[in-house]
Amino acid sequence: MEIREIENKVREVLGAKEVAVDHRLLGGMSNYTYVVIADGARYTFRVPGEYAEYFVDRELEKANLALMEKLGITNETVYLDTESGIKIARYVEGSPLSTLDSTQYPYKEAAEILKIIHESPLRSPADYDPFTRLARYEGYVRNLGYVHPKHYDKLKEEFFNYRSYLEAQERVLTHGDSQPSNFVYTGTGLVVVDFEFCGNNDPIYDIACFANKVYEEGLNLLYAYFDKPSFDELKRFHLWRGFQCLQWYNVAIFKDLKGMSATLKIDFNRVAAHYLELVAFYLEKTASLTENQTLPEKM
């Protein structure tokens, strides 16, 4: 979407006279987000990336945004077109946690925000439904002629030994993509953004998302959330992070098959290979846990 088109859309939606795109926010491989100034006020303007419609239900996103705004933990969305995925929201002045020194992360505050979501009586119109979602993502790449390697099949088979255990967990409202980049530090507190993958799920799934880049960061959040996590909580943390890596492996393969490695200048084949290494890592971590052992210390 061209800058002029963005500015014209903001004029149309907000009825603003003076509109200018200030800059594009860095980060994010799925969407393009710009900071726009309209009659002196700042907004974010999201343009979904290519093929985002394969992975995000915009009607569901809209419903989930309404729930999260009721909880007072996010900025206000003033416009969401469920056809195009274009979203305009009030800008939050601050820094994503992913841009800060991780030794200074406000883990307790992040845990408290997640607890507000998880302990709310509100429910999403739909479950996240991890295993059905994984099958759908696998179907996307198979339809493009991809054959999963034997190593993937072996790791998936090993992981699926835990399927009934994971599916038996209580489902509550969850963020679904609560990685550090989706927490914004304002200088006085945190807000959480980006609810494209929100749904009802095991709350520990959200904590596992925080290990998106660094294992220890997720583990620190687990300890901030539970203080002394149980064997069961540690087990689910490792399993869900392993699951997420299986899931995002397929997304990375899809992007490569669609030619996005070239257009975005990101080697999605290498990204996928790394995710597969992480699946093995988290399965090994899970297998090494025993109920009577001394639990790992906070990192």
Give a written overview of the molecule.
This protein has about 300 residues and is of the alpha+beta class. It has two domains: about 5-90, Phosphorylase Kinase, domain 1 (2-Layer Sandwich); about 95-290, Aminoglycoside phosphotransferase (APH), C-terminal lobe (Aminoglycoside 3'-phosphotransferase, Chain: A, domain 2, Alpha-Beta Complex), CATH 3.90.1200. The protein is built from eleven helices and ten strands. It has helices spanning about 5-15, 60-70, 105-120, 130-145, 150-160, 165, 205-210, 215-225, 230-255, 260-265, 270-290, and strands at about 20-25, 30-40, 40-50, 75-80, 85-90, 95, 170-175, 185, 190, 200. A five-stranded antiparallel sheet has the order 1-2-3-5-4. A hairpin with a 4-residue loop joins strand 8 and strand 9 (about 190). Helix 5 runs parallel beside helix 11 and helix 9 (about 230-255) packs antiparallel against helix 11. The radius of gyration is 20 Å and the shape is globular. The mean pLDDT is about 95.
Within CATH, the superfamily of the largest domain carries the name: Aminoglycoside phosphotransferase (APH), C-terminal lobe
In angstroms, what is the radius of gyration? 20 Å
CATH architect. name of the largest domain: Alpha-Beta Complex
What best-fitting shape do the alpha-carbon axes yield? globular
Please identify the top-level CATH class of the largest domain. Answer: Alpha Beta
Could you outline the blueprint of secondary structure elements for this entry?
Blueprint (H helix, E strand, L loop, with lengths): L2 H12 L4 E6 L6 E8 L2 E8 L9 H13 L6 E4 L6 E4 L4 E2 L10 H12 L11 H14 L6 H10 L3 H5 L4 E3 L8 E3 L4 E3 L6 E3 L2 H6 L5 H12 L4 H27 L2 H5 L3 H21 L11
Antiparallel strand pairs: 1-2, 2-3, 3-5, 4-5, 6-8, 7-10, 8-9
